Amino acid sequence: MLRHTARALSKRTPGYVFWRQSSLTELQHSKRNYLLSERPVPLAHIARRMARVKARYEDTRDFHERNLLRGEYKYFTGKLCDLRAAPSGDMIAVLQCAALFGFWDAAQVDRILAELFLLLESLDAMELVALFTCMPLLRRQESELYRRVAAGLALVVMDLTTHECLQVCRACTAETPVELVEKVLEELSDHLDELTPAQCVEVLDTWSVAPQQVRLRTRDRLSALRQRALDRVEELSCMDVAVLYTTLHAMEGEGELAESLQRRLVQAFTRDLTQTCPRSTALLFTAVRRSHALSLEVTQWMAGRVLFLATDFTPAELLAVFQLYVEHLVALCALAADLRAEMAAAAQLETPNSARPSLADGGRAAMAASHIAPSAASFRTHSAPATRTTRQHILEREAAAQNLATLKHVCEGLTAQLATTLESASAYVSVASQMEIVELYASAVEQLELGATCSVSAGGAGKYGAPSSSSSEAVGQLLRLLPQSRRVLQLVSSKLIANMKSASLALLIQLLEQANSLGSAALQDAVVAAAVQELITRDITGLTTEAARALERKLRSLTHLRAEHQRRLSTAFIPKVRRYI
Asked: Is residue 328 in some structural domain?
């Protein structure tokens, strides 16, 4: 019995611990805080072990081993480091590991960066390059240290090797000082013989995001790099081809690339579709969008691969691909309706005697029929070309129907994936992407409405919708084409309502304009009511007279909104706008 009592009393329960304390002060000091009582470890030990983990992580491609190495790095980054007399190389090595793995102890990184700021004058060129390349990955490209490091690198660019210049070139962002970007681009253009085609693409990629004045000054010097990459485009990977395609558009500016050059780039990209990744596919679809005919061919060639990659796209990549497919689907719907109208007109021309006048019509009808009907000789003369034209229309109609079926199948798969992404709690869809989704459907409705108007003027009626120019019928046609679009717009409406308080005035007006095109059949009425309520309750400041007049015109043009929403805008919001007129 005594053994059992002693065992029960020896347990360190919270009540027992409190009973042993003589005062609350001792109780507070007796808490086991391992982070505060831990002895700081010299940074050199941590940097050496992190460097080993980094080397092993870069050498392997095994998912499970990499996961274990990430855990090992997490253990080391949680250690309390002693920065006293720490070498600058060790501190930069810790920052490089943090940039590689993508997560870090913020307090530790801040202390290291503050220490490096004090030692900035003593850093050599290699250390400046290493520090400069890892700071954008640490999201410190807007700090004063970043600007100081860039200024120091601009002074020693001539002393860097080509490999180091390439490292700096890859790390340049929109926030990089102009002096460094220009000097690095000029230095690399002078060492063209040492660059591979893939490295030429990297240099051109950096040039495409440089400020406008830098691009204008260095454009002629980089023409040799551009030509070298184009001459050996077959050696480039799919990602490099997509980046080169995008960069060439930036070099041309408002002009268009030659059709032969674009087709050559697309063929180089599609020569092995198994090597394409979601990011390169989205880049290609964005670049090829300027050429309507070529983009239609790309959507046909990439249909199977796009469906295979659908689950791997980020929301922005999925939206870039989905937008092009929807545009061509809507355009082909209008084309199919036009072909059916032309077929009907050709059939009427081929049978001119199909409606014979009856004997009861009298001589006047017979005389009119004799003037309308052609002679037998002329009918035989024109029958062969009419038959060839009809055959051509049939072939065009069959090709359009086949392409339409392919596009519809891909759009259905991408719509389902978009709905899954919007439903997922782990996928982040920005407010800008949400508005792009709404704008995509609104532009599709406008295009369908325009196509229906053209079909009515041509006298045709399509399979996918009745010939009408009304917006409601165009919305119904779109929802029949892609039934899951209704679910997508419901999810987007819910997300927009949640972000309504942080939305800007321009975004709210844009949302009302899109709702005016889509109507309540597609876009939920709750999001329109929330946008109207937010406009009414928000204070408007800083409007100029011209902006206020333009805003009033926009609001009064929203005639397809519900009468209740129009009344609230007219009575509660437009008077606030008119105060600035």
From this structure: yes
For residues 463 and 338, what is the distance between their CA atoms, to the nearest angstrom?
A: 11
Looking at this protein, which amino acid is placed at residue 44?
Answer: A
Measured over the CA atoms of residue 493, residue 495, residue 497 and residue 503, the dihedral's sign is negative
Integer Cα distance of 302 and 245 in angstroms: 17
Answer whether residue 283 is part of any domain: no
The SS3 of residue 254 is coil
Please give the tally of structural domains in the chain. 1
What number is the average pLDDT over the span 374-389?
A: 47
Boundaries of domain holding 465 = 302-352+375-498
Query: Taking all residues of the chain, what is their mean pLDDT, rounded to a whole number?
Result: 83
According to DSSP, the residues that pair with 82 across neighbouring strands are: 42
Considering the entire predicted model, what is its pTM?
0.78
d(CA 436, CA 321): 12
C-alpha distance from residue 69 to each of 54, 56, 424, 510 (Å) = 8, 8, 29, 47
Distance CA 245, CA 201 (A): 10
* Nearest-angstrom CA–CA distance, 46 and 39: 13
Q: Could you read off the pLDDT of 382-435 as tens digits, one per residue?
A: 445 555 556 665 666 666 677 888 999 999 999 999 999 999 988 899 999 999
> What span, in angstroms and rounded, lies between the C-alpha atoms of 487 and 494?
11
Spell out the SS3 assignment of 353-410: CCCCCCHHHHHHHHHHHHHHCCCHHHHHHHHHHHHHHHHHHHHHHHHHHHHHHHHHHH
**CA-based Rg of the chain, rounded to a whole angstrom?**
34
Identify whether the C-beta of residue 165 lies closer than 8 Å to the C-beta of residue 184.
Answer: yes
Largest CA distance in the chain: 132
What would the 3-class secondary structure string for 127-163 be? HHHHHHHHCCCCCCCCCHHHHHHHHHHHHCHHHCCHH
Domain-located, residue 558: no
Q: Within a domain: residue 465? A: yes
Contact (CB, 8 A) for 224 and 192: yes
Distance from CA of residue 144 to its chain's centroid?
30
Instruction: Name the β-bridge partners of 42.
Output: 82
Per-residue model confidence as pLDDT tens digits over 282-328: 999 999 998 888 999 999 999 999 999 999 999 999 999 999 999 99
